């Protein structure tokens, strides 16, 4: 389920008379200058993408050909189609031939920390991704979580947040995806 080659956008810059410029971290894999990629984003709770062409890469203000796993840098690119409205920090860049594997099934989660577990609705943070769903079963080590929307996984670490009926955070669970 996890994306194998991904750059996570962490900043968006506006530079007059330039291409679109973002700051990002290469989570895994590699991103190279002059290649075409997919920019993945959520629009109205649907996962969409636009094709982009990487024009330049800078690491620590030095012109570079690529960003490797666990490195950060600035990337300028052109959007090759007209699907995208606005660049945001929640977007990711993946290879152009990458097919997103959507998860609609239950996700098994190994609990690393929890102060309490409710069989109730939760928000899950996975990378830049926000997932809603319900815990349908659990024991002291594992949770079975059912997403309520079509989603994809960016990382194997997750943070689950539960809010009570007056919208106050009352539980946090930290864990690892075990599927």
Outline of the structure:
The protein is mostly beta strands. Helices cover 0% and strands 59% of the residues.
Features:
179 residues, mainly beta, elongated
What does the model show?
- With 179 residues, the chain is mainly beta.
- Helix content is 0%, strand content 59%.
- It is built from no helices and 15 strands.
- It has strands spanning 6-13, 20-28, 30-32, 36-43, 46-59, 62-64, 66-68, 72-79, 92-95, 107-114, 121-126, 129-138, 142-147, 157-163, 169-177.
- The strands form three sheets. The protein has a six-stranded antiparallel barrel with strand order 1-2-8-5-4-9.
- The chain is elongated and about 50 Å long.
- It starts with 5 loop residues before the first strand and ends with a strand.
- The model has no long low-confidence stretch (mean pLDDT 83).
On the 0 to 100 scale, the average pLDDT is 83
The helix fraction, in percent, is under 10%
Estimated structural class:
mainly beta
Please write the string of helix (H) and strand (E) elements: EEEEEEEEEEEEEEE
Q: Which blocks of ≥5 consecutive residues have pLDDT under 50?
A: none
Number of strands: 15
Q: How many helices does DSSP assign?
A: 0
- The fraction of residues in strands falls at over 45%
End-to-end gap: 8 Å
Biggest sheet strand order reads 1-2-8-5-4-9
C-alpha Rg, in Å? 18 Å
Main beta sheet: strand number and arrangement?
A: 6 strands, antiparallel, barrel
Query: Rough shape?
Result: elongated
């Amino acid at each position: 389920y996890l994306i194998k080659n991904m750059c996570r956008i962490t900043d968006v810059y506006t530079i007059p008379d330039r291409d679109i410029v973002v700051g990002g971290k290469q989570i895994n894999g590699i991103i190279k200058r002059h290649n075409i990629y997919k920019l993945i984003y959520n629009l109205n709770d649907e996962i969409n993408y636009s094709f982009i062409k990487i024009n330049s890469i800078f690491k620590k203000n030095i012109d570079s050909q690529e960003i490797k796993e666990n490195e950060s840098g600035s990337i300028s690119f052109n959007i090759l189609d007209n699907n995208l409205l606005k660049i945001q920090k929640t977007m990711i860049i993946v290879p152009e031939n990458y097919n997103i594997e959507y998860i609609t099934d239950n996700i098994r989660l190994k609990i690393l920390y929890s102060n309490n577990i409710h069989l109730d609705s939760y928000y899950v943070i996975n990378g830049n991704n926000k997932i809603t769903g319900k815990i349908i079963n659990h024991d002291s080590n594992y949770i079975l979580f059912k997403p309520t929307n079509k989603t994809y996984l960016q990382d194997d670490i997750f943070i689950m947040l539960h809010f009570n009926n007056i919208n106050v955070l009352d539980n946090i669970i930290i864990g690892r995806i075990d599927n």
